[in-house]
Amino acid sequence: MSEIKDVDLWESGETKINWVIAHMPILNSIKVEFEVEKPLAGVKIALSVHLEAKTAYLCKVLAAGGAEMYVTGSNVLSTQDDVAAALVHAGLNVFAWHAASPEEYWHHLSCVLETCPNIIVDDGGDLVHLMHTKYIDLIPNVYGGCEETTTGVLRLIEMAHAGTLKFPMVLVNNADCKHLFDNRYGTGQSVWDGINRTTNLIVAGKTVVVAGYGWCGKGVAMRAKGQGASVIVTEVDPIKAMESVMDGFRVMTMDEAAPLGDMFITVTSCCQVVCERHFLAMKEGAICCNAGHFDVEVSMKDLNRIAVSHFEARKDIEGYKLPNGRTVYVLGEGKLVNLACGDGHPAEIMDMSFGIQALCVRYIARNKGKLPDTVLNVPSEIDLDVAYRKLAAWGLKIDELTQEQHEYLG
Fold first, then answer.
1. How far apart are CA 399 and CA 202, in angstroms?
2. Which helix (H) or strand (E) holds 309?
3. Smallest Cα–Cα separation from 281: which of 221, 324, 234?
4. Is the CB of residue 229 less than 8 Å from the CB of residue 194?
């Protein structure tokens, strides 16, 4: 039971998966445990995460634990058809293809939910949203779920505060082994991988505007500085703005930054961060891209409305001619630039994030019916488990507190 582009592409996808397996020791160790324990036997999992090789390996690890997997993507441009084919060839159920229309995307989400899943693994919150609006009758079957990214966490917290969340959701993104590394080092590197390979332009000497100085923004700004760019940060949080100043960056409003920037990267999880007045103030040839979850941070709606024409300037680069005669460029249709224009986070980074995911899925299965219907932090023992596995993979050991030290620290 699958809907994919072409199952005959599986060999190429398997090659990609085998490459990341060789660089994901945490998931490898969890897979060995899952194969013996079968903690997910009889459990149906609906998963919506960027469908590329690293996600595919997470799916295979969960399947090794006995789970019945129903898989789709969380972004139409990040789905890789050969990877989807490899999962189907391995016996998993996949509903996704690259560049799906909005209607096809929501259809694929519906396909995984119509299987009546017990656990949901979400990235951005669309599966949970759909379950709470279209498939309310299936909610009693859900033990709980996990959320991968900041945008989804914000949506879940809003639901929890409103009292509308009907099953427990573990905030994987908030785990230390996730956001401190995935959001900072993973996003920092993969965003620039996507920009550099797509534009083939130098970063040194350019002015880069980073909108948002959360963990993702910190990583993007740090890597821009490392490549020789002059970095401007825009923020709405005064504490984060102060932090970015002390990290050596200029801080100003987007209105002030718009005429100065050569490259604009949004990392906010908000909408209308770069909008009509900013586009019209930009210099000729300015490049815009988004590293938040949805394509609303760089307002494509505004840009399409005001542009007098647009054209494909290069693969994954669209040029927009403005009424003032200047042209601005957008990468990856304003969707996640590190996945729309690249392969996403490095395997070693996602090894930690997906290690957290796999162990949290097991935690939910083990605690079926015992968890409250609200947002939950990742248990500290899972966070520490992944950290120790990572250190072991590096061949490193750390000190342990003596009993006397424990007592001294209280």
1. 43
2. strand 309-314
3. 324
4. no
3-class state of residue 351 by DSSP: helix
Give the sign of the dihedral formed by CA 176, CA 44, CA 78, CA 390: positive
| 53, 142, 355, 401 from 386: Cα distances, Å | 20, 26, 7, 19
Q: pLDDT digits over 33-43, tens only?
A: 999 999 999 99
Query: Are residues 291 and 220 in contact, defined by beta-carbon separation less than 8 angstroms?
Result: yes
Amino acid identity, position 245: V
- Read off the pLDDT of residues 344-367 as tens digits, 9 standing for 90 and up: 999 999 999 999 999 999 999 999
Span 218-224, mean pLDDT? 98
CA distance 241 to 274: 18
Dump the DSSP string for 20-58: HHTT-HHHHHHHHHHHHH-TTTT-EEEEES--SHHHHHH
> By the 8 A CB rule, do 178 and 356 touch?
yes
* Whether 360 contacts 170, CB under 8 Å: yes
Token pair recorded at residue 103:
């209607």
Calculate mean pLDDT across residues 320-349.
95
Asked if residues 321 and 63 have their Cβ atoms less than 8 Å apart, the reply is no
Q: What are phi and psi of 313, to 5 degrees?
A: -85, -30
Full-model pTM:
0.92
| Tokens, residue 370 | 């015992």
* Pick from 145, 147, 141: nearest CA to 116: 141
